[in-house]
Amino acid sequence: MDCSSARILGWILQRRGILVAALSAIIFVQGASAQCRTEDVPESGKLTANPTRPTESYPGDPIQAGVLQVESGWTHNWASQDASQNSFGTMLRLGAWCNLEVRWDVVNYLSMTSPAGANSGFGDNFLGGQYRFLRETSHRPSLSLGYTVKFPSANPANGLGSGKMDQAATLMLGKTLHGFSILSNASYFSIGQPKGGNRAKGEATLAISHTLKGKWGVVGEIYGDSRINAASPSYVNSTWAITYNIRPRIVLDTGSYLGLTAGPCSPGRSYFVGVTYAMGTLFHPLDPPAGRLPE
Questions:
Q1: What mean pLDDT do residues 95-105 have?
Q2: Mind giving me the DSSP string for the chain?
Q3: Other residues' Cβ atoms within 10 Å of the Cβ of residue 98
Q4: pLDDT confidence band for 230 (50 / 70 / 90)
Q5: Closest CA to 147 of 103, 182, 191
Q6: 109: which residues sit within 8 A by CB, 6+ positions away?
Q7: Is the dihedral of CA 106, 172, 57, 227 positive or negative?
């Protein structure tokens, strides 16, 4: 076995958890075909954007089957009076099948400025998805399970990332009540440490959005993360945003993240702008008579 093959085999063995998750996703795909319903695919000529940004919360429902959507945004953060950060990120979302979504999220550009100097470069990559195992009804919310892994592509020597792999498992809830969309997540994170090993933390989120007059909408969210260690205590953050639907397939957002606690891990204040665009339908999961799926 040559050196390159040995490195590839070592990478696979070290990340067997990722392979297990991938195999599980394939199994879910096979079983999901029997769960398809009419609402799981977009109506002909009526494709609409379904943003996850700008909140920390993910919806309880995945994107419709076959739909490819891109979400992108810029954020400026004032971590303190003498330190700031700019980031530009893009997320691709694909409705892989009925009840199943996959996501690829990348920080395309990251810059940090402080009294110690300024650094910029490429950020980290995140690969994940969710599987909906319970649909929303008039008496219950939708529920999904999600998994995300961070691939450390940012340069830790420049202070742009940890250089370690992180993982997260998330329970996602979604419910619509009287025109209000309510999202709540409960997440468990495994955070890679600089000296090896992992530390765990939890996160809870609650986001509420509502359509205002015409094409305008408003979003509010509060979420909190638990303590990792003495250098990374718990904190509470919030999101406040306005959205505007240019067209059914294009949604703009702008607003601010406001830290509600003080301390070394407080997110401080951030301003963001972003856009969500439903690019199109790549495939149809089924081809039933008259263009309808079985109920």
A1: 94
A2: --HHHHHHHHHHHHTHHHHHHHHHHHHHHHHHGGG--GGGSPPTT-------TT-SPPPSSPPPTTEEEEEEEEEEEEEETTEEEEEEEEEEEEEEETTEEEEEEEEEEEEEEETTEEEEE---EEEEEEEEEE---SSS-EEEEEEEEEE--S-GGGTS--SS-EEEEEEEEEEEETTEEEEEEEEEEEEE-TTSSEEEEEEEEEEEEEE-STTEEEEEEEEEE---BTTB--EEEEEEEEEEEEETTEEEEEEEEEE-S-STT---EEEEEEEEEEEEE---S---GGG----
A3: 24
A4: confident
A5: 103
A6: 86, 87, 88, 120, 121, 122, 123
A7: negative
Q: How much is the pLDDT for 38? A: 82
- Is residue 248 within 8 A of residue 48, CB to CB? The reply is yes
Among 204, 210, 165, which residue's Cα sits nearest to residue 186? 204
Q: What is the per-residue pLDDT for 78?
A: 85
What pLDDT is recorded for position 3?
Answer: 43
> What residue has token string 């649909």?
135
Q: Could you tell me the sign of the dihedral formed by the alpha carbons of 175, 34, 149, 83, in that order? A: negative
Preceding amide of 54 cis, omega within 30: yes
Q: Hey, how many other C-beta atoms are within 10 angstroms of the C-beta on 45?
A: 5
| Non-local CB neighbours of 290 within 8 Å, separated by 6+ positions | none
Predicted model pTM? 0.83
Listed residue (159, 148, 156) closest to 185, CA to CA: 148
Tell me if 111 sits within 8 A of 120, measured CB to CB: yes
Q: Which residues contact 34 (CB under 8 A, 6 or more apart)?
A: none
* Spatial CA neighbour of 206 closest among 246, 260, 153, 138: 260
- For residues 263 and 191, what is the distance between their CA atoms, to the nearest angstrom? 20
List of domains in the chain = 3-284 (2.40.160.40)
